[in-house]
Amino acid sequence: MSNQTDLPQPYGFPPEDEISISELLMKLWAKRGLILVLPVVFAGLTIAGLLAGKTAQQTTVSYYIELSGIYLGDMPSSESEDERDSDSDSDSKVTTRYPNGTLFSPQDLLNPAVLKSLGDEFNLDPLDLADNLDVQYGTPLSNGVLAEYRAALSANGKATPEDLATINARFQAKLDAASKRGLKITVHFVELDLVESQGLEIALRLPKVWNQVFTSQFNTTLNPTIVGLRWADAINLDTTTGLQEADIQLNQLKLGTELISKDGRLRGIVNVGGASANDLLGYIDDFQTIFFEPLYLEAFERDSTLSRIYEQDLNLQITKVTNEITELNARLSDIRDFQFSSRGAGGSGNAGGDRASLDGTAFGEVVSLAERAALSNYLQSSLDQRYELIKELTELEAKLQRITRASGTSKESAITPEFVEMGVKRYESIIAGYRDLLTKAQAITIGRTPEFYAVMTQPEVDGQLIEKRDLLFIALALALGGMLGLVVA
Q: Angle 7-9-12 (CA atoms, 0-180°, nearest 5)?
């Protein structure tokens, strides 16, 4: 019997073609340098590419500021309810306001006056600054709210649309409250042909310039109605036109003085003559009684043509306001009738409520209650509107009575040039006293709110050199280099 080694081998099969694991490992060990070098080279090239890309992307600098002097939500307590804007804050919407109640917007930092002042400092075109500066609501705390929001969504993956809407509303309010406590300022310094240090300086200067411009030029610390009042230092009280202008300006000065006297922050303020806002109101009333009324009546008696034209205009205004009041009265009557009829139809006692629940009309009752609540708000706004119209009508009728009384006065004038000169001096004294009172009021409010912001973080170039996702690219480069090294070995 022959040995198995003597058996013929299959055709084309070499006699010795076994794979020796030990020999393969020895060959790989001999090429260990190549196997180790290739992964390192691939990882190094990947890191270099990532750093080069990140360096090219780092063209902006940004930082956060806290809105310390801007009020979040409701207006400050020193402002009265009548001074609130018609679009005042609701419970579901958080807004920001200056100390005088004017709405604040992040775009105020990009106001043309702010950009012009900033451009003059750095010798830059304000238009270029507007294109390469970005200001948005945001704080580092808002990132935490966003992370909490994502976690809530993940935990409620099978929630109903109603539950998701509730979650969105709840976190939207929290996000608004967190983000609107500060601003994120971003400067694209490369687009401005600046180096990084200059971009950092512009980022730091922007809120300071905004603070200076909006406190000095725009008077955001005083009531906006006071700021909007205008007057002339001197008016010719010897002409009919001049007296009409003085009549308008006296009313504006009186309104501004009343607002200053009602502002709790300005209690006790006096002008250079030692007169308070209430004292100045008395001076204005005395001037109107002693000087203005006689001059006014005398001027309209001399110019009967202008008197007739002015009287016709007043009559037209009175007719217009009267028609508006009549329409409001009819509207108020309809609202009251609807409310009374709804209450009468609602039934009395608990039995009616039980029947409403049983026959499925409870929803209709809820809707009716909601409608009556909405009508109550509308009723209050209509009453306020009628009150303002009645005040306007009273003022117009008083002016008409003055004109009518002037036309019936004696032709003999008792007004002397000395009397007119004395009236002009008294009017100029009132103007000077009001101006000094206004200047001191502004200085006090600015002193109580010296800065609208506080630095929250230091400016830094956006983007990290190595992020978490970059580690994945480096790991893949190591793996690819190792596999290639094995194949080559």
A: 165
> Is position 356 within any domain?
no
> Could you tell me which residues are beta bridge partners of residue 110?
none
Backbone phi, then psi, for 84, in 5-degree steps?
Answer: -75, 145
- Nearest CA among 231, 224, 281 for reference residue 103: 224
Instruction: Return d(Cα 480, Cα 484) in angstroms, integer.
Output: 6
> Which among 80, 59, 406, 400 has a CA at the least distance from the CA of 199?
59
Q: With a cut of 70, which residues of the chain have pLDDT below it? A: 1-19, 50-58, 73-94, 142-165, 167-178, 300-307, 310, 338-375, 402-414, 462-470
* Claim to verify: residue 112 and residue 232 sit in the same structural domain: no
Whether 181 and 231 share a structural domain: no
The residue whose two tokens read 């170039």 is: 461
Helix, coil or strand: residue 67: coil
**SS3 assignment, position 461:** strand
Residues 158, 112 contacting (CB under 8 angstroms): no
Buried b (16+ CB within 10 A) or exposed e, 147-185: eebeeeeeeeeeeeeeeeeebeeebeebbbebbbbbbbb
CA distance 373 to 379: 10
Three-state SS at 182: strand
User: If you search the block for the tokens 């018609």, which residue do you land on?
Assistant: 86
What is the number of structural domains in the chain?
2
